[in-house]
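User: I'm curious whether this sequence folds into something compact or stays loose and floppy. Could you predict its structure so I can see for myself?
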Amino acid sequence: QVQLAESGGGSVQTGGSLRLSCVASGRTFGNYVSGWFRPAPGKEREFVACINWSGGSTWYVDSVKGRFTISRDNAKNTVHLQMNSLKPEDTAVYYCAAGSSLRLYNSGRYSAAEYDYWGQGTQVTVSS
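Assistant: Here's the prediction. I'll summarize afterward.
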């Protein structure tokens, strides 16, 4: 089992920045693909970004490319999401996820259903 705990959410104005953190406990975190998701209309949870086990590869939804950066520190069992140039449409609860399915190494990485472990979420609010 892996337990995930997010922090770093808050309220900012348009153009501001926040840094989300996800700390894992339990099994070796470095064995898992890690991602961030948020609710979206018509979807339970929308893919935002993910990072492979080593941190050498990252993927983003088009709407956050160039503004968000995902990173990880396996020695500290932590994944971060640096969010810059925030927009009101980024307002959401952000969830950290982790999984070990082989499908996460291809198109499955974009699907919430492929992740095994989830945090409780942290609220991000961006005002105009």
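Summary: The first strand starts at residue 2 and ends at 7. The chain has no helices and eleven strands.
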